[in-house]
Write a structure and sequence with these properties.
- This protein is α/β, with parallel strands linked by helices.
- It has 2 domains: 5-104 and 300-334, Rossmann fold; 109-291, NAD(P)-binding Rossmann-like Domain (Rossmann fold, 3-Layer(aba) Sandwich).
- The protein is 35% helix and 14% strand.
- The protein contains 13 helices and 12 strands.
- The strands form 2 sheets. The protein has a 7-stranded parallel β-sheet, sandwiched between helices. It has a 5-stranded parallel β-sheet with strand order 2-1-3-4-5, with helices on one face.
- α3 links the parallel β3 and β4 (79-82).
- The radius of gyration is 23 Å and the shape is elongated.
- It starts with a strand and ends in a 17-residue tail after the last helix.
- The relative contact order is 0.14.
Length: 336
Amino acid sequence: MRRPGILLAMQPDRTEHVLPDHLLDRLEMLGRLLDREPLQTFGDDRAKRLLPDADILITGWGAPYVGRDVLSAAPGLRMIAHAAGTVKGLIGQEVFEASIAVSHAAEANSIPVAEFTLAAILFAGKQIFRFRDLYAADRNRDRTHSMQRLPIGNYGRTVGIVGASRIGRRVIDVLKPFDFNIILFDPTLDSEACAALGAEKADLSTLMRRADIVSLHAPSLPSTHHLLDAHHLALMKDGATLINTARGAVIDEVALLATLATGRIDAIIDVTDPEVPDASSAFYDLPNVFLTPHIAGAVGLERTRLGEMAIDEIGRFLRGEPLEYGITLADLAGMA
């Protein structure tokens, strides 16, 4: 019986640790790994030689577009396992129309985002960055000691989650062991569904007004573009913190920077629009902004989860079992 041919397509410098040797060995047990080195283009001689034997394609960050040309070059292709999150802009509609199974590893990528968000919430509630800055500036504890009397800390604080996405739900789960009040804005859920997740339903304005910490987890869609605008930012409590690990376009950043410039709120920002702010952007300089370069998702060894999830899905597919993280064409509209 012919063993299925498995082919890799991703940029090695962006996917280090996704498929370490022990996972490549697992793939060798599932089928014929056509080349341990991933393709970076589908147009060179190596790709033209390997694609005709490919039954399964594993893609990742930096993979070339999979469209009609690839389907023509790989007539036996039956599955694409994306060892990363969204497949928007990577996989063409014709792939779905050809009844090729598609799976992604967004669930694996959600774990480090939720962990990052939990750390950000705990640090924000305890004003860790302000303590650090004052201690370093003063070289004594006069001001930091007096800050301990302020109504800060994480006991009984209200966290507002914007978007019950895959990551938003996971953040709610990791917050449950703590003494937070969790409120949730998601127009697709009613009060009962929010309660089942462990949160109180709120409209967006109410959430912005009540929350001590607001964490964004809505996908970047036309309907969520600048979901948070000047009006919503003005509703935030003095001293509140805004956390964005979703997408920069979900916030009106002109309004956000204007609000942050007043010093009235703090922000922990992992994503911006554009992805890298202009060198003159105030995001780099404002003392009440903690800016990170889109690292909440899988980095370093965390990326191995992506490869593991993709291989698990390939195993299910080859055994004739339903995919746990399969994607349909209809799913794309609601994906980030």
